């Protein structure tokens, strides 16, 4: 039986961290999820809980996530780190790669992409736990899943080509703004189905996801044309 992965989300925007946690908790291969809002909390929680994976923001109230990443590399932290940040400059990307990040997700995070990352990390953990040695193919899968630039021609399960085209047509207007609710209403879909298609489009960088904070209530995830 596959062991669920435990995750520490390091994010100073509490509402955003809770949205990520809510999504992650719905995934079958994820276990306990903790939240930390700054570096001091993060260091304490790593020591106490020893998470399998850390989703690490770069800009935090008491410093930079990249500094913590370097500390973890020096300490030979046995878990993985996924950098989650709005910073996409090559200096930050290079520092993160040198620090040994498992993945690098640019905000706003596409949940379809996050799901792929978590699934790959769980597969890596399972392989390391069950194998005394690795084949070249397994090593390639561990290190080069995205570097190879492979593109699957077949759409994933749950994504229908006809419905996908209808969703994409809603964003032909550059000013278009939609939520899962508006797409569900326009195309007569369930909200869960609409969100799945929106996240798939966002993961392929066909549309962009944004977090919109209202005056009251929870923040809303909206999508706009690129």
From TrEMBL:
InterPro entries to which the protein is assigned, alphabetical: 2C-system_Tx_regulators (IPR051271), CheY-like_superfamily (IPR011006), DpiA-like_HTH (IPR048714), Sig_transdc_resp-reg_cit/mal (IPR024187), Sig_transdc_resp-reg_receiver (IPR001789)
Coiled-coil segments: 111-138
Keyword Transcription: yes
Domain Response regulatory: 6-122
Keyword DNA-binding assigned: yes
CDD domains named among the record's database cross-references: REC_citrate_TCS
Modified residues (4-aspartylphosphate): 57
Principal cellular location given in the protein's record: cytoplasm
Entry keywords, A to Z: Activator, Coiled coil, Cytoplasm, DNA-binding, Phosphoprotein, Transcription, Transcription regulation, Two-component regulatory system
Cellular localisation: Cytoplasm
Entries under SUPFAM superfamilies matching the protein: CheY-like (SSF52172)
UniProt-recorded name of the protein: Transcriptional regulatory protein
